[in-house]
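REQUEST
  id: r-88c1
  op: predict_structure
  target: AbiJ-NTD3 domain-containing protein
  payload:
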Amino acid sequence: MDISALKELLRPAVGNLKDQCTNEKIPDLCRQLGLPVPREEGGKRERLHGAFDLLNDADMPEFARTLLAQKVFSPSLRNHIQDLLWEDEPNIDVPKRHRRELAEALQPFELFSHWENFKRFLTDIFVFPVDLSEIFSMHETGILGEIHRHFVRNPEDGDVAWLFEKLQIVDLSTPRFRRWLEGLVSADVQMSIDRQLAKVEAINKVLRACGAELTHSSDAEGYPVFSIISLRAFRGRPKNIIFASLTKPDIRLSDSLNNEIEILSNPNEVLIYDRPLNTEGLSWRELQAWWADLTCEENSEQAKNSLYRRLQQSLPNSSPPQKKFFKEFFRQYSSAIYDLPALLPEVWLHWDPKTVSSRGAKALLNHRMDFLLLMPDGGRVVIEIDGIQHYSDETGRASKSKYADLVAGDRSLKLAGYDVYRFAGIEFHSDDVSNKIKSFFDALFKHHGIKIKF
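RESPONSE
  id: r-88c1
  status: 200
  body:
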């Protein structure tokens, strides 16, 4: 995100807030907006600028979102600020051809159920020229008036392709198009679950052709909320995350129809996260809440510490680099860890109840991942720490067959929608390993549109 450009846009708007309060009320206004309290001397604009200049760059995006919620910007400035804030989001692109096909897919439907809600949604997404005549008119004017005439007063004339062209939807930026589509199927615009589902089904027939999908990501006020995700990021939705295992677990299906599993071995030797995931993935905050419920731990700090110790306990003593990697992740991100994806160790992906002697060498091939992160929009990241045993035989000599197994396993994971990153164990003997781990995660989180909040 270009923080300098964001500050350049925000600073004049902050100065204009002088008209909202007296000199005496400026400290209260600053506290309300999340700005530092300014000095007492000077005019109102000067004091507000002084408070803004004291704001840390890291807090600038959140401050911008606060101002957006206050609706203090003109539509064009609002859109410019939003575009800057959305720069780091995951890129789920819907090409122009498919956007045009979406208009065709939506044509058989009544596009919206409630004009005022639809109008409000449109003005939140697009910039419409100011039409002063609307103040004195009993009807909608300008572009909104045309839309109202075609889709409300004369609904038989409603042409979705015309609407897409009029609003230049085909040329919208990827983040803004995403919000257009998600807002179009929202409960406020559609007013019924049946209407939501019907449009989602029609839209998904087009989106799936370009590797995307509207998915039921959460609920609000009894209605489903839909979000666009990339189908290239994963297949299916995680149902059981088996991790932090101390030994190979003894597992059986207790209800195959519902994919319910049961651990027959000591339950303390493996953890199973079985809560549904939303489109944001699995954060440490959510994992800790689950752990606190599991262990009946009421103190959040104690839950954090005991969960860390339990995960650390699962790391094999035979792999000091793996332990170093895990420790560095938490040391580097400290207080920011709560809102970052949880770094899950010793995760079972393939599970074969039989042993090598009865199944053959492939029974345990790629059975367990060193680390897994469940990212926003269905992203799955596997991190492997490769010791010498990954590519050499029992004598320590390079093994072509082991290397072949390694790359074959990577291919399988990637085809299943996982991103695989490998570290060589020898890297952990260098003096700059801490910086190397930090640089890797910084780049990884930026790639997935994850903001680090210290």
